[in-house]
């Protein structure tokens, strides 16, 4: 029986401090994400989803199956896009050009992205994705939803579930979102963009 595994972080648990603490990584990755992995593995056993990939499950499942698969996919993209804090961290190349062309400047894009993340009621995610024509789109996705369900290609995401930031920022979601820019690995995001 094929099962899903907890992703291995591409950095040490303390590498993202002070933006994300080692303690938050321990709970967020080691407990929350591990829980979604365990739940999905238990749920898919003996179903038609057994042996399917996460993206296929996210695009076709419902209920608890969708929620756990969506959270694994979302968190894998989220944790995979970070690196140690870097001052003046910005995209380069084709992605930077696309952001400037679409939003006017990187700063305008950042402001809009943070506003969308701050304004999402309840729990969920804010995403930068591309459509089939290559246009950049910022979306708010509630709970475990992912832009692939809308035919989009996800590039960058910030988690606005409270478990992602509450130990470090309490109820200051905007401060959390603004701090994340220092740890985005734009090379990973540019690879996802692939243009």
Indicate the mean pLDDT. Answer: 95
Structural class: mainly alpha
Number of helices: 8
- Number of self-contained structural domains: 2
Question: What is the approximate shape?
Answer: globular
What separation lies between the terminal Cα atoms? 37 Å
What this model shows, in words?
This protein is mainly α. It folds into 2 domains: 22-79, Orthogonal Bundle (Helix Hairpins), CATH 1.10.287; 93-193, 3-Layer(bab) Sandwich (minor pseudopilin epsh fold). The protein contains 8 helices and 3 strands; from the N terminus they run H-H-H-H-H-E-E-E-H-H-H.
Give a concise summary.
This protein is mainly alpha-helical. Helices cover 47% and strands 11% of the residues. The model has no long low-confidence stretch (mean pLDDT 95).
Task: Provide tags for this entry.
2 domains, 195 residues, minor pseudopilin epsh fold, mainly alpha, 3 strands, 8 helices
What's the topology here?
Blueprint: H1 22-44, H2 54-60, H3 63-79, H4 93-103, H5 106-119, E1 124-130, E2 136-142, E3 153-159, H6 166-169, H7 173-179, H8 186-193
Antiparallel strand pairs: 1-2, 1-3
